[in-house]
# Entry
Amino acid sequence: MLAEIITYNLVADTIADFARESLLEEVYLTPKPGLVDRENNGSHHDLNLTVMESSALALRSVFYEMAIVAAHKKPSLQLREELGAIGRYGERKMLEATGGINAHKGAIWSIGLLVAATSILSSGDSVFTISNLLNTAGAIARFDDRYQPSAPSNGKQVSKKYKVATAREEAALGFPSLSKTALPTWRKYQNESENICRINVLLSLISVVDDTCILHRSDMKVLRMIKQKAKDILDRGGMGIPENQHVYQDLDDLVRYWWVSPGGSADMLAASIFIHKVTHHFTIN
# Structure
């Protein structure tokens, strides 16, 4: 029994490391329109590379606790509420690390669910596949957390105003933006350089996600323009085509003009990176 506990602690360590690395690799990806990267702070006055790094490093222990809590369990109300409590603690820890700046609240939710789903599958009898991973995460998300704060978040208010899906609704459906868009795009461009592949994945997400981070600062008209511009780049062959650099610059100019940032798409990119890491690890080892 002790050996089993020690062994799974090591597995939880691995999962938490993958989560932290995914957040860091997302922010290090350069260039990204309107988002913090190695070149600039995008459409942000408060966020920068140091803040994003501090947040990702602080959240590593939070993801570890989520992995431990979910091990050898199945999706349930109790697990959902335990994860919710850890997530709220994680938000406080993030704010302490960043001086009160929200760097990864959305990622705590999305990657937290995927961490828990990874833990469930890697400690149980189910076959570890991307489909099972997303379905398990969705099953957890569909439970109502009775201790969730009643005050609506900015994301929920924007979702209600524009009648777009909330982060919870996206998760409860098994993250269709990942299964139908991001992951197929990853497979399509996997023979390109890692940087080009991941930028194309980000563009694919920007082209389909009703990003509440963008809507919070603008409106549906601006969101549609940004989505179309991202789609145009992919329709022209993606960022691996040198001639598309100027179209990408047009997208960057557009988000800077409206001072918006596709933060929801960035969270989903980090989730895509996490899925890529854990699927490779747990299906190979």
Remarks:
- Residues 2-284 form one domain.
- The chain is about 70% helix and 0% strand.
- Residues 2-28 form the longest helix (27 residues).
- Residues 34 and 43 are 5 Å apart (CA to CA).
